[in-house]
Design a protein that fits this description.
Layout: H1 2-22, E1 41-43, E2 51-52, H2 54-60, E3 69-72, E4 77-80, E5 88-90, E6 113-117, E7 126-130, E8 150-154, E9 157-164, H3 174-180, E10 183-185, E11 193-196, H4 197-210, H5 214-225, H6 237-255, E12 299-306, E13 311-312, H7 333-343, H8 353-360, E14 365-367, E15 369-375, E16 387-389, H9 395-405, E17 415-419, H10 423-426, H11 430-435, E18 447-451, H12 454-457, H13 462-468, H14 483-498, H15 503-552, H16 556-572, H17 593-602, H18 613-636, H19 643-670, H20 672-675, H21 681-684, H22 690-700, E19 704-705, H23 731-734, H24 736-741, H25 745-781, H26 787-820, H27 825-830, E20 841-842, H28 851-854, H29 874-928, H30 932-959
Parallel strand pairs: 5-9, 8-11, 12-17, 17-18, 19-20
Antiparallel strand pairs: 1-2, 1-3, 3-4, 6-7, 8-9, 10-11, 12-15, 13-14, 15-16
Helix pairs in contact: 4-6, 6-15, 14-15, 15-29, 15-30, 17-25, 18-19, 18-25, 18-26, 22-26, 25-26, 29-30
Length: 968
């Protein structure tokens, strides 16, 4: 473990520290490691810190001009610089002095003078002062005296270097010679500062991987130069930002083989897209009939907004230089601005929390965030589809993003699955908005199927789940529709640093970040697909097995009817998305407490009844339910619960005490005649305490009857001593006679209606809990093969038992209250007492054709929630129908996933081969044009994609030896 390694290091700590300190001393003998003369300098960047004389140090560092050296002072090594040895950097002639240059005198620091830098505002001036006045300036921060020099910034810090350019007649300009020496100048006329290619690359990687800002990176370079005298190191921060912008664009142009083709630019041409998504003409043969398997050649996209990528207003918005506007992932600025002006609208969503928060400080922001479209299966950003938000996430912003995404390499593709958090409302008028805008274009023949990610769909209305959840989208495979949320974390790393940038700089940085994200997806796609394919094959087998067992228990008539329903819904969802409601329970349910309360509130109040009585009684019923639930939770807690659990229960009890006190105080108003001359003891006998309910329920609750008709006793409840819960001042606790005598008939009728609704809710919850228990026994308990699996299985069953006891206790209280309120015979016949036999859960119930199930009658509460004319088996039939349809959907999605992953493997290999052929074609054209460097780079890129294709093919053969090779 890590601790073992650290413990081992502790034994060597003192020895390592001793070696570290010994390295500070001068070596013995004190000789140059090259020529044997007396040593003067040592290089801390060379291996073993060799000691050199002045001449050897200068000569041996001609190929390493940015190494850090130290000079021996007689007592210690002091930081120095190579220019102190007389080092000069020669341009051209492979680093040798130019033969055409006139020899000049060797320069070095004067004997009696030093030169102090004017560091104000990053100045380069020199102030000559006497030796004794400037002792605070370290040696390595002295610029070369009496000579021209160049300030060069490298990963090893800031250096002052004498540079001698080539002076031949046919020599290139000074800045070109520097660039050929891998030095990028900050200006072209009389450059005084240059950055090495290495430091620019290092900054880009630091920014990509670590989110390091330009300010922090240059601060690091200053510390590398001098960790103590930071204020004496020149400030070249602004030059770093400017050159980093230029370097990013040059990198993108190089990676995309743009050599003398700048005039033929197009939107998104510098961006890299997904290797595994179907792209006709790239990784899909354009001659293939894409309509043969429409679901396989469907593009799957996901849209979302990110409110972290804010942008402040600029001081000079008109004074901007755009280096790659619209050629990456961010959309081109001018047409998008015209679209916003033309389609400007006021957001209709005032309560969307994310949008509201984004608009709070909008006065300081030109962009409150960004919106993007990505492929939903692999998480690659779509080129030229990322837009800025001006006033939060509006439809006009996302319309522009989606329109551009659906125009990227879509030739021949006619189907799109589109995931968006608010698709239930967004898609309603999409085509109308597109038709009314000259800046949007989505072909009318393109069929867009809307979906909502699995994390967000549960926050919508109940019907949205069946209509938009990924589980019910044909051709989606096994996706969650939320992959874009993981992409924002990558951009959020640099969002803080882009907030105050200019618009072009921000666009270039975000484009580069998104391009790198897509690149990393591309080089890892083979491993990702292989992992998913392994998981899909295992899941397909389990899904098929689960569906087969469920399907075997279904009659042929039901199977045929349900298959027709499914086919009709999936085929007609584009015309009417409500057809997908067949995946939800269709039976009409009995009225709930909420429905009854709403009916009472909307009904005209009778004379003598105080306003708000229905809500007051409903509040009392809720307090009763909460007290019963808390009591059962306490009872089912372990003998010694944790402090956290005890604290949570104490909080709940305290809140209930406050609610109870408030309810009793309000009861003085609604039940004033009943309170006159009485106290709580006069009506408390009308209610049996909650402890009695739960002990009775424990006698009622029974486990599942397995094949032998018995259940493991481990699921039985354990009695626990509890305190009595005082009754609430409800009409049912006073009794019907006393309420009628006091003129509270209307309150009695109200509570009776609400009690019926409460009983319906409790019985519905009881049915769901018992059905879940049957599923747990059949699918979890019986399949447990180890002690740990059986433990977890019984924990699941016990948690369901708690829900069963809670619902049963609430129902028992309702049934007793109905009797106290004088319910008629029909009501009491409908709401019967719960018996122990009613709580039995037969696993045979999962097999509709099983003999045990067919010869038995279901308890009364399984069929009371449907119309009287309906068969008593219909509720359970509806239960089977939903489970059958959803189990089939799971099986179908996993089968699609396996098929899609195999196809995506093929498409990925085709993508690599396409890119290799493209680079080979570029290589040949560059050779013909005499561009030898570009030809060599194209050949190297071709080799890279060939290697990626070979690795992918090898991975495929290792995973699928029984499947045809990729080239078949």
């Amino acid at each position: 473990s890590q601790n073992d390694y650290i413990c081992e290091w502790l034994r060597h700590k003192e020895d390592l520290l001793r070696i570290l300190l010994e390295m500070e001393a001068a070596p013995s003998p004190w000789n140059c490691t090259k020529c044997g003369k007396d040593g003067v300098y040592r290089c801390t960047d060379c291996m073993h810190q060799p000691l050199f004389c002045t001449d050897c140090c200068r000569i041996l560092h001609e190929a390493h001009p940015f190494h850090r050296i130290q000079q021996w002072t007689g007592e210690f090594f002091e930081d120095s610089a190579l220019h102190m040895t007389g080092f000069q950097l020669y341009l051209g002639h492979n680093g040798a002095p130019c033969p055409s240059a006139s020899p000049g005198p060797e320069h070095g620091p004067s004997e009696g003078q030093r030169y102090k830098m004017d560091t104000r505002a990053g100045g380069m001036g020199m102030v000559e002062e006497e030796w004794e006045d400037i002792d605070e300036v370290p040696l390595h921060l002295w610029p070369p005296a009496n000579s021209k020099y160049l300030t060069i910034i490298d990963v090893m810090g800031v250096h002052f270097v004498r540079v001698q350019p080539c002076q031949c007649l046919d020599a290139d300009s000074y800045h070109r010679q520097l660039f050929q020496a891998k030095l990028c100048t900050s200006t072209f006329e009389k450059p005084s500062t240059a950055f090495t290619f290495a430091v620019l690359d290092d900054f880009l990687w630091e920014n990509l991987e670590c989110g390091t800002s330009g300010m922090n990176y240059y601060s690091k370079l200053r510390r590398v130069t001098s960790n103590v005298f930071l204020h004496l190191v020149l400030n070249r921060y602004r030059e770093l930002l400017r050159l980093a912008r230029q370097w990013r664009v040059l990198k993108l142009l190089k990676w995309n083989a743009f050599q003398d083709e700048m005039e033929r630019s197009s939107p998104g041409d510098l961006a890299l897209f997904c290797a595994a998504c179907p792209q006709p003409g790239i990784n899909v043969d354009p001659d293939v009939d894409l309509h043969e398997l429409v679901w396989k050649y469907t593009r799957t996209v996901v849209m979302d907004g990110n409110f972290k990528a804010e942008h402040m207003h600029e001081k000079r918005p008109d004074d901007q230089v755009w280096l790659m506007d619209g050629r990456g992932f961010m959309v081109a600025h001018p047409p998008y601005s015209r679209h916003i002006l033309r389609a400007g609208q006021k957001s209709a969503c005032h309560n969307h929390r994310a949008i509201s928060q984004a608009n709070v400080s909008r006065g300081k922001l030109s962009a409150t965030g960004i919106g993007a479209t990505a492929c939903a299966r692999h998480g690659c950003f779509y080129p030229h589809s990322v837009v800025d938000f001006q006033k939060g996430e509006r439809q006009l912003n996302m319309d522009y993003s989606l329109s551009n995404a659906l125009g990227y390499n879509m030739t021949g593709i006619k189907n799109v699955l589109c995931f968006y958090d608010i698709n239930c409302s967004y898609m309603k008028n999409l085509h109308k908005r597109v038709d009314n805008s000259p800046f949007l274009h989505i072909p009318s023949s393109l069929q867009i199927v809307p979906g909502i990610g699995i994390w967000h769909v549960h926050g919508h209305k109940q019907e949205c789940y069946a209509r938009y959840a990924p589980l019910f989208l044909q051709g989606s495979g096994w996706v969650d529709g939320e992959i874009i949320e993981t992409l924002w974390s990558i951009l959020n790393i640099v969002s803080t640093s882009t907030r105050g940038m200019s618009s072009p700089h921000r666009q270039e940085l975000l484009d580069f970040q998104m391009n790198d994200s897509n690149f990393m997806k591309m080089i890892r796609i083979v491993d990702s697909l292989s992992r998913k394919l392994k998981a899909a094959r295992a899941s397909v087998a389990m899904a098929r097995d689960a569906f087969t067992k469920l399907d075997e228990a279904v009659s042929s008539e039901n199977r045929q009817a349900w298959s027709i329903q499914e086919e009709s819904a999936l085929g007609g969802r584009i015309r009417d998305v409500s057809m997908m409601d067949i995946f939800e329970i269709q039976l009409k349910k009995a009225p709930t407490v909420c429905a009854v309360e709403l009916e009472l509130l909307e009904a005209p109040s009778q004379q003598g009844t105080r306003q708000g009585a229905a809500s007051w009684i409903t509040c009392g019923l809720g307090i009763e339910e909460s007290e019963i639930t808390l009591a059962i939770t306490r009872k089912d807690s372990s003998k010694y619960p944790s402090e956290t659990k005890r604290l949570a229960m104490a909080w709940r009890a305290d809140r209930l005490a406050v609610d109870r006190s408030r309810f009793i105080a309000d009861g003085q108003i609604y039940l004033a005649p009943l309170h006159q001359g009485t106290d709580a003891d006069d009506y408390s006998a009308g209610m049996t305490d909650v402890v009695h309910h739960m002990s009775a329920v424990d006698d009622v609750v029974s486990g599942e009857e397995d094949s032998e008709g018995s259940m493991d006793e481990a699921a039985d409840a354990v009695p626990l001593k509890m305190t009595k819960i005082a009754p609430l001042p409800l009409p049912s606790n006073f009794g019907i006679e006393r309420c009628c005598a006091a003129g509270a008939d209307e309150l009695v009728e109200m509570e009776l209606k609400l009690r019926i609704g409460q009983a319906n809710d409790a019985l519905h919850g009881l049915r769901i809990a018992l059905a879940d228990k049957a599923v747990a026994f059949r699918g979890v308990v019986r399949k447990a093969t180890s002690y740990s699996m059986r433990t977890r299985a019984w924990q699941m069953v016990n948690s369901i038992d708690i829900s069963v006891r809670q619902q049963a206790a609430i129902y028992k209280r309702c049934q007793e209250a109905m009797i106290a309120l004088g319910a008629d015979t029909d009501t009491l016949t409908r709401f019967q007492q719960l018996q122990k036999s009613h709580m039995a859960v037969h696993t045979a119930a999962f097999s509709q054709n099983a003999h045990d199930h067919r010869s038995s009658n279901l308890p009364w509460f399984w069929c009371m929630d449907i119309p009287r004319t309906t068969s008593s088996k219909n509720w359970l039939t509806e239960f089977y129908r939903i489970h059958w349809l959803r189990a089939k959907a799971v099986k179908d999605r996993w089968e699609e996933e396996e098929d899609l992953l195999m196809s995506e493997f093929h498409w990925t290999m085709n993508f690599f081969k396409f890119r290799a052929k493209k680079w080979n074609k570029k290589c040949l054209s560059f050779k013909a044009a005499g561009l030898h460097g570009a030809a060599c780079y194209a050949a190297r890129q071709k080799a890279v994609y060939d290697q990626l294709a070979e690795q992918g093919a090898s991975k495929w053969l290792n995973m699928s030896p029984e499947i045809l090779p990729l080239n078949q």
